[in-house]
What we know:
Layout: H1 4-16, H2 21-37, E1 40-45, H3 48-63, E2 73-76, H4 81-90, H5 98-104, E3 110-114, H6 121-131, E4 136-141, E5 154-157, H7 163-186
Parallel strand pairs: 1-2, 1-3, 3-4, 4-5
Amino acid sequence: MNLFSKEYLGQLSQILDLFPHEQFEQMIDCLLAAHAEGRRIFIMGNGGSAMTASHFACDLNKGCSLGQERRFKAICLNDSLPTLLAYANDLSYAQIFVEQLKNFYVPGDVVMGISASGNSANVLRAIEYANGHAGITIGWCGFDGGALGPMVRIPLVIRAQDMQKTEDLHLIMAHMTMQQINAAITGQPEKSHGLKKRAVPRRSLTNSSDHLDP
């Protein structure tokens, strides 16, 4: 019996065999340096890559920072819908990230673009700006890397000819990064899995003074 799920996961396994380990370690060192120096980390993407960018920023700001005196400063440039629409409407969709970057960026900050094709114009514009202003640029892409791969200082190219599998591996990279950074910061690998889920006490919602813990 030919199972689609088995075939899909088998193909993912083959792609993982080509994982860019050296570039991944370079990225980890870069992010740890940004953390130590208090530099910002800007992250952006479109569609599924926007979800990964938002997820990754959350993992850095909360997952790698909770309980720590020194915290990450990650900013996801695709999270503010009104800002995105304002720039897209008044300028162009290609400008939605670079114009936000100009508000907050300082030389030496890290700018990360996520684009499975490697050819998203708005991501490329932001990377181009960072490259021209002493930025440290990272690109997550797939296929042959597109224009993004050769444009960034640290390219992480998933060697997949498939959009969804590229996005699968990008999310895995985000979680790998969180766990490795946590281990590096705490010196305790067992903490790299994040916080255990805590039980939320049951409370009556009939009384307006009762609130669930956040």
